[in-house]
Write a structure and sequence with these properties.
The complex is a heterodimer of chains A (214) and B (322). Chain A is α+β, with helices and mostly antiparallel strands. Chain A has 7 helices and 10 strands. In chain A, the strands form 3 sheets. Chain A has a 4-stranded mixed beta sheet. Chain A has a 4-stranded antiparallel beta sheet with strand order 8-9-7-10, covered by helices on one side. A two-stranded antiparallel ribbon of chain A has the order 2-3. With 322 residues, chain B is an alpha/beta fold. Chain B has a single domain, classed as Arginase, Chain A. In chain B, helix 4 crosses helix 5, helix 7 runs parallel beside helix 8 (272-290) and helix 8 (272-290) packs parallel to helix 9. Classes of the chains: A alpha+beta (214), B alpha/beta (322). Chain A binds chain B through residues 142-146, 168-171, 195-201, and chain B through 24-26, 86-88, 132, 137, 139-141, 171, 174, 196-202, 264-265.
């Protein structure tokens, strides 16, 4: 559940004096969108994204002369002139929950991961986040299906649910209790990812125990 | 005079020996017994001839499954284990040999069709089923991928390269899809309940094959509650065009009957009659595109009330003489 298990470790970085065309080339060729900028020891100084680079280049609707003027300027610029320096970052103790909150709050596509000394050790993207949650919830395990039930309102429903699955020797991954967000909804829904072809037997057992299968 | 043509059923009583341990396990020997009960008393009885299956050839088996996996399966059965990898996949001492026979049944059927004898429809009435099993994975009551093995046999033994597979079991045949994912010679079409709501959670319509096989997988994922109209529309709008464009050398039906409204293994609600329509479509396609080369192989179907009549009406559709 730590970002270190899912990030791209030891990512490619550039120095502040890297030219903008060189940075663009790296992003295009490697199919990256985010490039950390570091000093010679690897400490994080900034981030440059494909969007920063696209905005630096002249618009295609400009006239030839204007375009050339801006192009010359961009080609003689270095990444420190376009990188963002107000940075949020993750550290070695950050969890994937921390990453989700920060990615959403900052509205960015990826975050650098730094160690205690501020050196870049990884980069964690929204793609990595999706993969991490997918694995956490057992999405990629073949033969698994999501089963959701309404809680009947007692206090020990999770233990009863788990007991039903364990008694039937049915493997499962996710058990999540969340508010019922549907229009008519009050109370809680429990989502389980169960691994069995015998779903009807599971649903029957759940219904017999008073759970309403959704 | 009968309106139905001949049907060859590849079957052995040895298929009954695969014991899934009782309890509420739905994949039981009683499935084949109810099929025979329907067939023997019905209008097809006089048209049916039984062909004795043989065990799958070792080399053919290894063209689909890994040797490690085969050894593991054999070892599990012979050492008295009760399951292979998951409690769904119950086994007994006999299961390995029965599975070899189940996987070999299509060889008998294909040989019959290829020997140029009188035209006939062929149905492999077998268990355990196969379409969930992958190269090295048992899943969803399946151990050896009977349909994939049949496709390889047709290719290797008779040079029928272009194989069209229609899987109308309620569940997606992840194993068949996985085995032929990159293969442009095998077109896999599956009509099943949407993976969000159904085992095994695969078979999204976006999955269309990869690499050279891109475009040679077609998943038709139906929402729970779907019935005859949705299936017939998909057959006419999507499957008919796909098969016409593909121009197969032979057709294999992964014939599962668990989408029946009485079968609680899926949320689909097909009528018994729908299976007759599916049979008629397949029969017509087999005659139009590949000189009648069509083999049907039993997959799922767990309602002991619905399975017999569903198979019977399907076979009726297959062998109905226009």
């Amino acid at each position: 559940m730590f970002v270190t298990g899912y990030m791209t470790a030891a990512p490619l970085t550039v120095r502040p004096d890297t030219s903008v065309p060189d940075a663009r080339k790296i992003l295009t060729e490697k199919h990256f969108r985010h490039l950390p900028v570091t000093d010679s020891e690897g400490h994080l100084l900034g981030m440059v994204t494909d969007r920063d680079i696209r905005s630096a280049y002249p618009s295609s609707i400009l006239s030839g002369e204007e375009r050339k003027k801006i192009l010359d300027k961009v080609e003689n610029s270095t990444v420190d002139s376009i990188m963002s320096t107000e940075l949020s970052s993750l550290n070695l103790n950050s969890t994937i929950d921390d990453a989700l909150i920060l990615l959403e709050k900052q509205n960015v596509g990826a975050l650098p991961v730094i160690d205690d000394s501020g050196k870049v050790v990884g980069i964690f993207s929204i793609r990595d986040l999706m993969k991490a949650y997918g694995e956490l919830f057992g999405l990629y395990e073949k033969g698994s299906v999501l089963v959701s039930v309404r809680e009947p309102g007692d206090t020990n429903s999770i233990s009863r649910l788990v007991n039903i699955l364990e008694k039937r020797n049915t493997p499962f991954t996710r058990v999540i209790r969340s508010r019922d967000f549907s229009d008519s909804g009050e109370g809680f829904i429990v989502h389980m990812r169960v691994q069995t072809m015998q779903l009807s037997a599971i649903k029957k057992a759940l219904a017999e125990e008073g759970f309403q299968v959704i | 005079m009968s309106r139905f043509g001949p049907v060859k059923i590849v079957y052995s009583d040895r298929f009954l020996l695969h014991d899934t341990g009782g309890g509420d396990h739905p994949e039981t020997a009683a499935r084949l017994e109810v099929i025979w009960r329907s067939l023997k008393k019905g209008p097809l009885a006089g048209n049916i001839e039984i062909l004795e299956p043989r065990q799958v050839d070792r080399g053919l088996l290894l063209s689909v499954h890994t040797e490690d996996y085969i050894f593991r399966f054999e070892e599990a059965c012979l050492s008295g284990m009760e399951m292979l990898g998951h409690p769904d996949n119950r086994i007994c001492y006999e299961s390995y040999n029965v599975a070899l026979l189940s996987a070999g049944a299509s060889q008998t059927g294909i040989d019959f069709l290829e020997k140029g004898q009188a035209p006939s429809r062929v149905f492999c009435c077998i268990r355990p089923p196969g379409h969930h099993s992958e190269a090295a994975l048992a899943l969803g009551f399946c151990f050896l991928n009977n349909v994939a093995i049949a496709a390889k046999y047709w290719q290797q033994q008779y040079g029928r390269q272009r194989v069209f597979i229609l899987d109308f079991d309620a569940h997606h045949g992840n194993g068949i899809q996985e085995i032929f994912d990159e293969d442009p010679d095998v077109f896999y079409v599956s009509i099943h309940e949407h993976p969000t709501f159904s085992f095994p959670g695969t078979g999204y319509e976006e999955d269309r094959g990869s690499g050279a096989g891109d475009g040679y997988t077609m998943n038709i994922a139906l929402p729970p509650g779907s019935s005859d109209a949705e299936v017939l529309k998909a057959m006419e709008d999507k499957v008919a065009g796909a098969i016409e464009e593909f121009q197969p050398d032979c057709i294999i039906a992964a014939a599962g009957f668990d989408a029946h409204e009485y079968d609680d293994m899926s949320g689909l609600a097909y009528s018994t009659r729908l299976y007759g329509h599916i049979g008629r479509h397949l029969s017509a396609w087999a005659d139009i595109y590949c000189d009648g080369r069509l083999v049907s192989i039993l997959e799922g179907g767990y309602s002991l009330d619905a399975l017999g009549p569903s198979v019977e009406i399907y076979l009726g559709g297959l062998c109905l003489e226009a």
